[in-house]
Amino acid sequence: MSSDTRWLSTEESAAWVRLVALTELLPNALDAQLLRDAGLTHFEYGALMALAGAPERTMVMTELASRTNATLPRLSHVARRLEERGLIERSPCRTDRRATNARVTEAGLDLIDQAAPGHVDTVRANVLDLLTEEQIGQLYQIAGAVLAKLDPEERLAATSCQFSEGPAVARAG
Amino acid sequence: MSSDTRWLSTEESAAWVRLVALTELLPNALDAQLLRDAGLTHFEYGALMALAGAPERTMVMTELASRTNATLPRLSHVARRLEERGLIERSPCRTDRRATNARVTEAGLDLIDQAAPGHVDTVRANVLDLLTEEQIGQLYQIAGAVLAKLDPEERLAATSCQFSEGPAVARAG
DNA sequence: CCGCATTGGTTGACGCTACAACTGATTGCC
DNA sequence: GGCAATCAGTTGTAGCGTCAACCAATGCGG
């Protein structure tokens, strides 16, 4: 117990307290809006978006779990509920009979298309529109530095949300 | 549905995706360390710290709930568990017989004193030490701008964590 | 001082997530 | 080929948070 802890300076402490407050409040705000307007949690929304952006609108469960930072049991439960609602379908994978493919249905695509505008509005209203262009760049850098530690393989980086214009994905057969 | 949604630019989207990833991963990291080393969730730690920093090491439940961004039922459940573990005590308030005072016990103070160094290490290792001094200032500003929207009354601002040196609080009777 | 809305707090039921245990398929190794 | 280890996924259980219902105390208007 060599008590050589480097305690936080005033500036560090102030920034940390605010970051903690942000990580507590922001997820609630996102969930509240999506739940109210589309009956989806932010996690479910992210999962559907990830599938929508994938080739064939399909992903193996393990891959999807990794991209959405979910444990496999969690994703399995969520997938069951989404399937019961007709938003995704699950089918056995042809090449690896252990694996399960999850695919967004048309209804799922419709739902996220319908939910996207409200969600983007929320993101703007609560975060992006409150920051200058410069601050958005700073945020990118700061979060990037932290994620290099927390998510070194960049599992979450490539994912979650396309916010491009138009429908979430081309509905090619 | 005038489809006049302002979609996100590439820069905005990139920053947003990273912020979301951060808000998903950071709480897990904090909980994991505290749970492993002290058997406390980050929320419980924050509540104990808030009490430790209060006059008489005591707060009314409602006040504590507000400061820790908890609903009253949530805090009530948590308080019951903390009380069962001997980390806090609850007693009726003298001036308002509806109210309940929560107070950290000596054992509670001991626990957070013991947990603090490891927690600060985690905060440094996962966030602060990965940023430049300048970035810490930027983070303070950015989070501040967002919190002005999400927490306009600054309920969480004044709270949660003192990371000053030495024991969490003077143990004056 | 009485009636009623409001506030402080607790409790119980339900939903979601983590964890452990398990099945079935696959890979590696001899 | 066969056995062990690993991997993909599901299921059950327990813990935590939310919501609704509830009780007790307060305060306010008449």
UniProtKB/TrEMBL annotation, chains A, B:
<dbReference type="InterPro" id="IPR036390">
    <property type="entry name" value="WH_DNA-bd_sf"/>
</dbReference>
<dbReference type="GO" id="GO:0006950">
    <property type="term" value="P:response to stress"/>
</dbReference>
<dbReference type="InterPro" id="IPR036388">
    <property type="entry name" value="WH-like_DNA-bd_sf"/>
</dbReference>
<dbReference type="InterPro" id="IPR000835">
    <property type="entry name" value="HTH_MarR-typ"/>
</dbReference>
<protein>
    <submittedName>
        <fullName>MarR family transcriptional regulator</fullName>
    </submittedName>
</protein>
<dbReference type="GO" id="GO:0003700">
    <property type="term" value="F:DNA-binding transcription factor activity"/>
</dbReference>
<dbReference type="Pfam" id="PF12802">
    <property type="entry name" value="MarR_2"/>
</dbReference>
<feature type="domain" description="HTH marR-type">
    <location>
        <begin position="12"/>
        <end position="148"/>
    </location>
</feature>
<dbReference type="InterPro" id="IPR039422">
    <property type="entry name" value="MarR/SlyA-like"/>
</dbReference>
